[in-house]
Every structure is written in C-alpha cells, then in structure tokens.
Design goal:
Archaeosine Trna-guanine Transglycosylase, Chain: A, domain 4; Transcription Regulator spoIIAA; transferase; 3 domains; alpha/beta; six-stranded mixed β-sheet
C-alpha cells in the first residue's frame, strides 16, 4: 500500500446527520474542518463536534465533490487487510445462490451498497474486472488486489478507471503506470471473454467495453423474458448487445427484433445470437436487427401497423443530474406512449428505467399514465428491481426498476 495519512475531520450538523443515518457519501459542503491538507486515499477519521468522539472512518478524495467515501460509521474502525477481507467475504456470500444457476458473469462488489464506495468488481468467467470511480482507492490497490483475487477464486484482474480517476492516476505517484484496461494480475489472452448467464452465453470486452464489459443488472429480468417468450413475437427496444433478445429466442420466441441506434451494438447482438444459436439456423434465423433512433423506429413500426406480443423498452439513463429529471420523465412518457400501440391485444409491455435520480414511484406513475391515456385496458403483472448481486444500501443505490403490464 502506498503511504497514506490519518486526517481528523469534523462535519457540519447536516453532515453528521447524514453519517449517522448511514449515508456513504460526505460532500465537500458537509465538512466543517480538516486537520491537514489531505491527499486522495488518506483515512478521514470523523469526530463529532459536541463530544469529540470518533463517529466514522472513510477515504478522503480532495478532487471529488464527494469528499469522503465512508467505509465505517458509528465509531472507530481499523482499516487494514482484515477489514477489507471481511467486506469482500460478506459480498461473496450474498452472491452464493446466484452462482448455483449456471451463471459465470456477476457483480462481486457493488460499491457503496457493499460497503466499498466508489469501487466495483465484476467477474466474467473467472476474470475479475475492477472499476474505480474514486482516486481515493489508488493508494489501496496493493492491499486490495490479492484479497479480491482470493475471494473471487481468480488469478486474473483487469483494471478499469472512470475518466476522472484515470486523470488522477496520471498525476499521482499512487497511480503511476496505471491505465484503463491494464491487466494487473494473471494473463488475459483476449480482450473479449465468453461468460454464461442462466445458461445463455454472451461476449464481454473487459478491456474496452462499456462499464466493465456488459450490463449485468438486468439478468433476472432477461431470464423472466425468456420465460414469457414462447410462441411470441418480441420487440427489444434499446437492445444494445441483445441480452433480452437472446433470452427471448432461448425461450421459444417465434421472432425477435433488436432495435437500437448503434450499428456496433446491433452487430454485437447478432454475434451473441450466433454464439448461442449458430448451430441451429432455424432459431438464429428468427432474429433481425433494426438500426434506428428508438423514437423514430417505434413511430415507423406503428405506421406500418406492426404489432408484437412482447415489447421491452429499456432505455439508457435519461437523467444524470437533478436538472435533467423533468426531461427524463417526459422522455419515458413519450417512448412508452409510442410503444403501447405496438403491443398486440393480450401482449405484454415491459418498461424499465436505470435512472437513479428518477424514483420508482415517479417512473411507475409515468407508465401507468401512458397506459391510461392510450385508452386500452391493462393489467399490472409485476414490478421488479435489482438482482441479488446489485444490492441496495442507500437511497441513491436504488436505480433499476421495471414494470410488466398485460395490455388488451
């Protein structure tokens, strides 16, 4: 571990309340005073103003608005190898049931929600992919790497860096030589790996792919789509790499259309279809791509009076900041209003949101109103949230929500 210091910190009254409530982020405005200058990765030891007692410990990050990433609240803690080993072991234990489902792609550490804020570990077919969202973790890598490999039962680890962390790494001694996509342990013959998800196979580019190589959070919903798809015509809107499309084909869909604005994403969807069904041309032939902006594509399909038995609408995050929330709600309203006419009588609409700033209550209300405005009878079938490897430990951690409606 690179040398770090201990920084005595006191908070404002709202900051203390946030810490005592278990929030893992302490923003710069929550800090009353810091004894010393502090550098990324220093241990912030937080003292109460009134009683001068330690009420928490976290990692200091002077380059981020989230000034302290809380590792422990409620009193003092010794942050060392054993501390991190216990955190990682607890995270692995939570995922144990998932690993018994013919699944080799999963999230081992879900950042704040597993007590390690700003740090994510995904595992693809035995290869660990560590993604850092805070430069505060850079001085701790020497301690963390062998522990992650030990708990995951892996030999290979790839480092992925958020842009702000990669910039910090270039400028700091703690991050010297670290680059996005670097293999820090073991051997990686190819950038692209094949992993399994409930028996289906997918490609993940762990060096250059989005996030860590794949979007794992919708796993349970993709499985559910496979269970609903038998004998159905399916439209997968914002299909990206075809996760829903592959599971729909595996479930016996008579036809699947993957709609996305990105040609490379659709190419990846086709490759994932071939990976699973290349040996069965009859199944692979049921899949087709439609390259179009989702809003324009849905309007075009409606004009042609095309309908589907199962329509999945899973857009990227429409709200990355507080000020974007009204626009995001309007976009959810518009895209789902366009989708409703494409659902055949008796078919199912599956609408999802991955915008953390849009609450589940607001999102579900938007979908309900879109259905009411359509004038079609409908029945709520289910509401789903995060899979087991994406636990929720604080309000902002609850980003994924999905609703299923049968439409008559």
């Amino acid at each position: 571990m690179k040398k770090t210091s201990r920084l005595p910190v006191t908070l404002t009254a709202p900051g203390e309340r946030a810490l005592r409530a278990g929030h893992p982020w302490l923003f710069d405005g929550a800090i009353r005073s810091v004894k010393g200058e502090g550098k990324a990765g220093d241990l912030a030891v937080v003292f109460s103003v009134k009683k001068n007692k330690c009420i928490g410990v976290g990692l200091y990050d002077p380059g981020s608005p989230i000034r302290i990433r809380v590792l422990h609240g409620g009193g003092p803690a010794t942050v060392n190898e054993d501390f991190f080993r216990k955190k990682l072991a607890a995270a692995k234990e939570l995922r144990t049931p998932l690993l018994a489902t013919d699944t080799t792609g999963y999230r081992l550490v879900h950042g704040e929600n597993d007590g390690l804020p700003g740090l994510v570990v995904d595992v693809y077919a035995g290869v660990c992919v560590l993604k850092l969202y805070s430069a505060a973790w850079l001085p701790w890598l020497d301690t963390l790497l062998p522990l992650i490999l030990e708990v995951a039962g892996s030999e290979t680890l790839v480092l992925r860096l958020a842009r702000v962390v990669e910039n910090a790494a270039r400028a700091s001694t703690a991050g010297a030589g670290l680059t996005d996509g670097a293999v820090l342990s073991g051997h990686l013959p190819e950038e692209e790996l094949i992993f399994r998800e409930h028996g289906r196979q997918f490609y993940a580019n762990v060096v250059r792919g989005h996030k860590t190589g794949f979007f794992l959070d919708h796993r349970d919903n993709r499985k559910h789509i496979g269970e609903l798809a038998e004998g159905k015509e399916v439209l997968d809107v914002f299909s990206y790499a075809g996760g829903f499309s592959v599971h729909a084909l595996a479930g016996g869909a008579t036809g699947v259309t993957s709609l996305d604005v990105s040609g490379p994403a659709l190419e990846q969807a086709s490759r994932n279809v071939q990976l699973n069904f290349g040996g069965d041309p009859a199944v692979a032939g049921r899949h087709q791509n439609m390259e179009a902006d989702a809003f324009d594509g849905l309007a075009e399909l409606a004009e042609s009076e095309k309908t589907y038995d199962l329509v999945i609408v899973d857009p990227p995050s429409f709200a990355k900041s507080e000020k974007e929330i009204p626009g995001a709600l309007a976009a959810y309203r518009k895209i789902n209003r366009l989708a409703v006419p494409l659902v055949a009588p008796g078919g199912v609409l599956v609408a999802a949101s991955c915008s953390a700033r849009v609450t589940a209550e607001d999102f579900f209300k938007v979908i309900a109103v879109a259905l009411q405005v359509s004038g079609r009878k409908h029945k709520l079938l289910d509401k789903t949230f995060h899979d087991v490897d994406h636990p929720v430990g604080f309000p902002e951690g609850a980003y994924l929500k999905t609703v299923y409606y049968r439409i008559y």
